[in-house]
Specification:
It is built from three helices and no strands. The protein starts with a helix and ends with a helix. The protein is mainly α. It has one domain.
Length: 128
């Protein structure tokens, strides 16, 4: 760890030596130009990622609602009174909805994961 700190200090000193040979006005103008360009590029990247952020947010909201509905269905299915004679149709209906809910949840998680992966790739490869 100490070697790394030494290496960083030497690198910073070398960079500072290189800066002192330039004129201060030229350096500040170049730095300001670079800052503006960096800000512009970051804004473009955020704008490009906006649809992905919306997909992620919508998927997270939908997953929360699906989980809430799933909990209600599981609670209803856990009720012993549901399994009384003559309620087979209701049990079947609840189980069918639970299966459909699971498929919907899987699809939503897949969309979320895909969008999240794309966003991470975009963050790691800003030039593409």
């Amino acid at each position: 760890m100490a070697e790394y700190r030494t290496w960083l200090a030497e690198r910073a000193r070398a960079a500072n030596r290189g800066r002192t040979t330039q004129r201060p006005d030229a350096d500040s103008a170049a730095t300001q130009s670079n800052r503006k360009e960096d800000r512009r590029e970051r804004a473009e990247a955020r704008k490009a990622q906006a649809p992905l952020r919306k997909i992620i947010k919508d998927a997270e909201t939908k997953l929360a609602k699906l989980e809430e509905e799933r909990a209600k269905l599981e609670s209803a299915l856990a009720d012993p009174a549901l399994y009384a004679e003559g309620k087979a149709a209701e049990v079947t209906k609840l189980n069918t909805r639970l299966a459909a809910l699971q498929r919907e949840q899987d699809e939503t998680e897949e969309r979320w994961l895909s969008a999240q992966t794309e966003m991470e790739e975009a963050a790691n490869n800003p030039e593409t």
